[in-house]
Amino acid sequence: MPPDPVILEKLKEKFPTEIVSTNDSGEMPVAVIKKAEGHSILSFMKEEPALRFDFLIDLTAIDRQKLGGTPRFEVVYHLYSVTLKHRLRLKIQLPEEDLRLASAVDLWKSANWMERECAEMFGILFEGHPNPKKLLLFEGFEGYPLRKDYPIDRRQKIPVPEEKL
Amino acid sequence: MGTKDIFAGSVITTKVKEVVAWGRKNSLWPMPYATACCGIEFMGTVSSYFDISRFGAELVRFSPRQADLLIVLGTINYKQAPILKRIYDQMCEPKWVISAGACASSGGFYNNYSVVQGIDEIIPVDVYVPGCPPRPEAILNGILKIQEKIVKEAKGKPDAA
Ligand code: SF4
What we know:
The complex is a heterodimer.
Chain A: H1 5-14, E1 19-24, E2 29-33, H2 38-47, E3 55-63, E4 73-80, E5 87-94, E6 100-102, H3 111-122, E7 125-127
Parallel strand pairs in A: 2-5, 6-7
Antiparallel strand pairs in A: 1-2, 3-4, 4-5
Chain B: H1 3-6, H2 16-25, E1 30-34, H3 38-46, E2 69-73, H4 81-90, E3 96-100, H5 102-106, E4 127-129, H6 136-154
Parallel strand pairs in B: 1-2, 2-3, 3-4
Helix pairs in contact in B: 2-6, 3-6
């Protein structure tokens, strides 16, 4: 299905100053937005009757360090509307100096584990997350392995069983 | 007439230690710790075609307390490490460990942030089986090596394997 132009129009109409850029990836519209109103935009995407993004398909981050971009991080949301059958890719810019971002778990429950993974892999702090523990890595893992400056051959201290037999 | 002639053909002389080792080596109870693709090869190894029971090791246990041979098959990551250590600690003495496959022996091609570079960083290993994955014949050969080791240990050469 070709991208629906209505989505980006609605976004531009409601948050004219928050949008950094928009484009069309060929499969879905893409919007890069500023961090400040990130959560309100996500909430608008879900609540607005003409958009109705009721499904968060994926949430991840990009470390743009080696792409030379500023700000360094982008948190990427893939949204889908089960009722209206359209998609959107939203990227929230996140500078290295302040990696706090409002959690989206209150909007979509599927954000829960994806934010935990994103947090441990990139060091992004999702504020208001109900269970901000590591998901795939062990407690005590040092560093953020999916950042571009994490050395590929870095080793961790091997964890030991919690209690003695 | 010497004792040799009296008991000829009906008695053999040996040591208790060696009889025990003979029993042990022919009735190993393996516990597979399969975390990845190598575990599939182990399924082939225990099934009828390759038939691990020819070597007396067919009684696969999934409780470490009932096993004396731990076979680690697959990638062990940092999060698995304490679990593997705990399983090993739960096995009764005497016990042996086979590290089957490139991943368990050295991390394999997973030279990355999450994988332990060989289980010998966590537990002692008696026999390493190469391969990615090792063929069932290779796993069987690993069991034969363990059997040799058991016999040699009983004869008082613990380091020979
Ligand atoms: S050694 Fe190869 S076959 Fe075995 S677990 Fe690793 S990747 Fe899979």
